[in-house]
Write a structure and sequence with these properties.
CATH class of the largest domain: Alpha Beta
Oligomer: single chain
Largest sheet: 4 strands, antiparallel
GO biological process, one term: transcription by RNA polymerase II
GO molecular function: DNA binding; DNA-directed RNA polymerase activity; protein dimerization activity
Distance between the termini: 57 Å
Family: Belongs to the archaeal Rpo11/eukaryotic RPB11/RPC19 RNA polymerase subunit family.
Shape: elongated
Order of helices and strands: HEEHEEH
Strand content: 15-25%
Keywords: DNA-directed RNA polymerase, Nucleus, Transcription
Radius of gyration: 23 Å
Number of helices: 3
Subcellular location: Nucleus
Strand order of the largest sheet: 1-2-4-3
CATH topology of the largest domain: Gyrase A, domain 2
Length: 153
Amino acid sequence: MCPNNISSSPMHFLHSFKNNIAFPVCTVHYGCFELFLLGEGEKKIEEKVFSGMSNTSDFVLMKEDHTLGNLLSEHLKMHPNVYMAGYKIAHPNVPELFIRVQTDGTITPRDVFTSVCEKLINQLEMLHQEFTREWELRRITTAGEQGNMQNGH
């Protein structure tokens, strides 16, 4: 469990609220690392074909939140073969992300999901490379300016 667990009593909550005490990120139900590290034998993602609509699947991602949910949902909506995409998190204390995708039938929801994930990974890798390059250039420039100042220039 989280070392900073809080009491779940109503009085503790009211006292903390009244005195503007910040709550720790951890909850009573999950330890700190249980919110983002997979347990033994736990799968990261699972596809469930949704029988209520044609060409529709639900993807359940364990230990994920709104950050990834919104990113994937918005990029899925941009795919030309996607009719509908959305996400939900059933409860804030349960780290499960549900994403539903419906396609036009020319491509499966799984293939669209995989394609969008691969595209996002490539975009994020490019962003990382650009950021690293700019960071290094800034570091070199700053070091050069400091060197010139020390030499009296």
